[in-house]
UniProtKB/TrEMBL annotation, chains A, B:
One of its GO terms (cellular component) is cytosol. SUPFAM superfamilies: GST C-terminal domain-like (SSF47616), Thioredoxin-like (SSF52833). It is found in: Cytoplasm, Cytosol. PANTHER family: GLUTATHIONE S-TRANSFERASE U17 (PTHR11260:SF615), GLUTATHIONE S-TRANSFERASE, GST, SUPERFAMILY, GST DOMAIN CONTAINING (PTHR11260). GO terms for molecular function: glutathione transferase activity. Its EC number is 2.5.1.18. InterPro entries: Glutathione-S-Trfase_C-like, Glutathione-S-Trfase_C_sf, Glutathione_S-Trfase, Glutathione_S-Trfase_N, GST_C_Tau, Omega/Tau-like, Thioredoxin-like_sf. Residues 92-223 form the GST C-terminal domain. The keyword Ribosomal protein does not apply. This is Glutathione S-transferase.
């Protein structure tokens, strides 16, 4: 069993990517120290040293060796503590390839649309982004149906790799619904994913890691204010 | 042993991403049928069906099941034919995480710069892109020194995952040197990588898969002409 002395996470409670690492560590019952980084203000020397290429959270530090990129960290945790509980990734190579494919889709295609929604100006632009998001959710609904094979989670009977990869964003999806005035996890459009989201958020592994929407909304407001203040200082 | 009847690759001889799949299959001694796709003109019905999300090459079809995304295909090949020869990925989880990290860097950061070089207009823009490419190569030189530990390849004594991930581009790097009039694999700047590139290109696994620069230059000219003709037709 790893102790908190040799496993640290440089992350932020509000970061879905950090939450991925927390979820994987909790699934594998790995004690660890969580080092909160104020990533939107400045980067700690330790973070810059641990992740010199991207200088971003999360970083897992295990026995003083840094591992970067959230999905790669989840795979590292699964492989390093293979004996702790069930595998996070599917054991079948084809199912693993499919899980990795959809995780890549989430990060490369779906998440950028989610970010666009936050900054979309004007009703027409917003409607376009929402339309693209619905298309993305429809694809993920198909993926859920295929991967879960009628069970509760992408990973089957319990949370696995794709549950972590997508579930980490659920707090922010709810923020987008609140601030954007749009129902994204719509039971009538994507019944599989809508049900999955509820099960995921009430699962023991997720419920103290994925932040509540109101807390994220408050945080979002503070970050926007900090960014505006920094811009004003720079302009003065 | 897989036979060509149950393994097909939808790809193109000129595509570095397709070459990755070919390299991995050759390393694992997997017979296969290579189906050439004229990807820059139109997409075959088979490709669109096999990769509906991205509709792009390469796709590996194994026992009629498609696997997409070149790096994921390489991992799939390594895991599916684990008993054939040595592993493509390192066996140690930390070394695997590092190899995956740099493969991601190559695709997400380094390769987009390479593409920019092809279209950079004006001496100033080109100089900026070349400068960024040199920075990228310097990082990859560091990665080579760390991963190879004084041996011939990223993978040690023989070609491994990162050798495939970066080596697949070497034909096009030489095209960029020819057309751009700039020495990228510069012995004085990046001695490790420059030596590695020569060893990689003369390796049995690579030498009939990675296309020669003159053949790629001719192909590049034809593609540009086809694109221009298509644009003219559309405009007429």
């Amino acid at each position: 069993m790893a102790t908190s002395a040799n496993v640290q996470v440089l992350g932020a409670w509000s970061s879905p990517f950090s939450n991925r690492v927390q979820l994987a560590l909790k699934l594998k019952c790995i004690e660890h120290e969580f080092v909160e980084e104020a990533f939107y203000i400045n980067k700690s020397e330790r973070l810059v040293k641990a992740n010199p290429v991207y200088q971003k959270i999360p970083v897992l530090i295990h026995d003083e060796k840094p591992v970067c990129e959230s999905l790669l960290i989840v795979e590292y945790i699964d492989e390093t503590w293979a004996g702790n509980g069930r595998s996070i990734l599917p054991s079948d190579p084809y199912e693993r390839a499919i899980a990795r494919f959809w995780a890549g889709y989430i990060d490369d295609k779906w998440f950028p649309r989610m970010k666009e929604l936050a900054t979309a100006a004007g009703d027409e632009t917003k409607a376009t982004v929402v339309g693209q998001l619905f298309e993305g959710f429809a694809l993920l609904e198909e993926a859920f149906v295929k991967c879960s094979k009628g069970k509760a989670f992408f990973g089957g009977d319990d949370i696995g790799y794709l549950d972590i990869a997508l579930g980490c964003f659920l707090g922010w999806v709810k923020v987008a619904e609140l601030l954007g005035g749009v129902k994204l996890l719509d039971q009538s459009r994507i019944p599989g994913l809508a049900g999955w989201a509820e099960r995921f958020l009430s699962h023991d592994v997720a419920n103290d890691i994925i932040p509540d929407a109101p807390r994220l909304v408050e945080f979002y407001g503070k970050v926007q204010a900090a960014i505006a203040a920094a811009a004003k200082t720079a302009a003065d």
